[in-house]
Specification:
It is a single chain. With 366 residues, the chain is an alpha+beta fold. The chain folds into 2 domains: 175 residues, no CATH class; 99 residues, Pdz3 Domain (Roll). 48% of the residues lie in helices and 22% in strands. The chain has 10 helices and 10 strands. The two termini are 26 Å apart.
Length: 366
């Protein structure tokens, strides 16, 4: 059920994205002849006065279709309500509306979560540091560390029940590249000792390929007013948005070190299922994070994405005429092939490595 819940969240996010395009077009009187949630064979279909609405077999996708792209359309090519016949600004609004819809949705989801769970008040610390994702190919995994372990001590030094434990352990790891360290861990109420040697990272610091978090639980309180919820949600949204942008920046500037953290559909569903197992309310934070990621990915100026189409519109606005159709089609088709290839690669990779990294999203709400 948790897997189905995660897939349902992804389907909702795609629906929100496509609804953004659809509403932006229809509100301007632009003709839309198809609205589809999913790809593949049609499961359900309804023909409206202007638009065909469909639900297809594979929910992780969707599209809004315009008569401009339909060779069977009987709309005259010079109809002013065709998307291609509208001014650049009108088309830019339609293309960017999906991204805007995902960002607005992410913020509203954060508001809903804070309204349900409450406002984070404090952390109730326990001894040690909690292990979150463990890269299967990492030093930590090879040494026997697994997600869910509690690291109680490092090199004989106990990790106290405070916010200082995680920085202390991180410092010990970073300052001992190529030097063996000893960890005392707690797993299933049994203590054991492990030894590992952090490898030298690109920045000269030791790394072991594990995500760490305080061994703590959050204490919540009821909000004082709706305004407090909206304000804290705005801060959380900013943290997520800036953090996501920073992650994409690191992927570009430090590709070799960060490429292994890129997740495809299988791993994203696994993350959502894990959060749903822990606490169903966590699906809201999962939805907010993926919605922001979906928005940022789509706005990148890459072929076959919304950002790629906006780039063509920018060029058209600057030169006073559109880029030749054959060039646009060639670029878009190439980009689509590359994106499909990347998607297939990630699916295959993650299907064979179902214990790959899990992003610790709960910390954003503590």
């Amino acid at each position: 059920m948790s897997v189905l819940a995660a897939i349902a969240v992804l389907a909702v996010l795609i629906l929100v994205h496509e609804l953004g395009h659809f509403v932006a077009a229809r509100s301007q009187g632009i003709l839309v002849n198809r609205f589809s949630l999913g790809f593949g064979p049609v499961l359900l279909k309804y023909q409206g006065s202007q638009t065909e609405y469909a639900v297809r077999a594979f929910p992780l996708g969707g599209f809004v279709g315009f008569p401009d792209d339909d060779p069977d359309s009987d709309v005259p090519p010079n109809d002013p309500n065709l998307l291609r016949n509208r001014p650049v600004l009108d088309r830019a609004i339609v293309i960017s509306a999906g991204v805007i819809a995902n960002l607005i949705f992410a913020y509203l989801v954060l508001v809903l979560q804070l309204g349900i769970v409450g406002i984070p008040k404090e952390l109730n610390y326990q001894a040690g540091v909690a292990v979150q994702p463990v890269n299967q190919e990492s030093v930590a995994y090879q040494a026997g560390i697994r997600e869910g372990d509690i690291i109680l001590a490092v090199n004989g030094q106990e990790l106290p029940a405070s916010e200082k434990s995680t920085p202390l352990l991180t410092k010990e790891i970073q300052t001992h590249p190529n030097q063996q360290i000893e960890l005392k861990i707690l797993r299933d109420n049994q203590q054991q000792t492990l030894k590992l040697t952090p490898k030298l990272g690109a920045d000269g610091k030791g790394v072991v390929g594990v995500a760490l978090s305080p061994n703590a639980t959050a204490v919540y309180r009821r909000p004082n007013s709706p305004l407090e919820i909206f304000g804290i949600a705005a801060n959380r949204f900013q943290q997520l948005f800036v953090g996501t942008l920073s992650g994409f920046g690191q992927l570009i500037t430090n590709f070799q070190q960060t490429a292994g953290q890129v997740s495809g559909p299988v791993n994203i569903v696994k993350i959502g299922a894990k959060l749903a197992d822990d606490n169903s309310v966590n699906l809201l934070s999962f939805a907010a994070i993926i919605s922001i990621n979906l928005a940022i990915i789509n706005i990148l100026p890459l072929p076959a994405l919304d950002g790629g189409q906006l780039a063509f519109l920018l060029i058209e606005g600057l030169r006073g005429k559109p880029v030749p159709a054959r060039i646009q089609e060639s670029v878009m088709q190439t980009g689509l092939v590359l994106l499909l290839g990347l998607g297939i690669f990630l699916i295959v990779k993650e299907t064979t490595q179902l214990t790959s990294q899990l992003e610790w999203v709960q910390k954003l709400f503590q």
